[in-house]
Specification:
With about 180 residues, the protein is of the alpha/beta class. About 30% of the residues lie in helices and about 30% in strands. The mean pLDDT is about 95.
Length: about 180
């Protein structure tokens, strides 16, 4: 399996899950070939593309048109097939079940997304989310408990990369959260 580097993606000014966080987040999803994945707030599609390379059947939703275009370009660039949706979760999400769900952005609709997942994330399905604020991290944690998710895991990850001068440049700390639907 080839893990894509950040430079492998066309990005522009659209948010992207960086490689170190992407590798951990995808590993938490415990993907297998032919599992269905819903990527909510997909941005450039780095999670979607990486998951599709692992054999997942990916549906991605992004509210910004520029993000949807980049998602399509990145999917084409890496030769993967996925279903992009230009819209807002959960209102524009399809009426189908998924094995795995990744939340990279919720546009403030986290409670409504959990209500959607009550019906559309399969029993035993895995939900993973990435957050940069304590407020959203705590909200996700409360919703995981309220909706009876099991095996809840929260990890704070801080990474830094060497720049062209030889200095380590810190990235934003990211909270990675995981729960398994009962």
């Amino acid at each position: 399996m080839k893990w894509l580097n950040d430079e492998d993606f066309i990005r522009a000014k659209v948010p992207m899950t960086k490689k170190a966080i992407r590798v951990l987040s995808v590993s938490y999803l415990d993907l297998e070939e032919d599992l269905s994945l819903l990527d909510i707030g997909s941005g450039t599609g780095s999670i979607s593309v990486q998951a599709a390379l692992l054999g997942a059947k990916v549906t991605s939703i992004e509210r910004k048109e520029e993000g949807v275009q980049l998602l399509r370009e990145n999917a084409k660039r890496h030769g993967v097939d996925l279903k992009p949706i230009h819209g807002l979760a959960p209102g524009d999400l399809p009426d189908q079940e998924f094995d795995r769900v990744f939340i990279g952005g919720s546009a403030g609709n986290l409670e409504e997304i959990f209500t959607y997942l009550d019906k559309h994330l399969k029993k035993g399905g895995i939900l993973v989310g990435n957050y940069i604020t304590l407020k959203n991290t705590w909200k996700m944690y409360e919703l995981l408990k309220e909706h009876n998710y099991q095996d809840i895991d929260v990890e704070l990850v801080q990474t830094a990369k060497l720049d062209h001068l030889g200095l380590m440049k810190g990235e934003n700390p990211i909270y990675i959260m995981k729960g398994v639907k009962e």
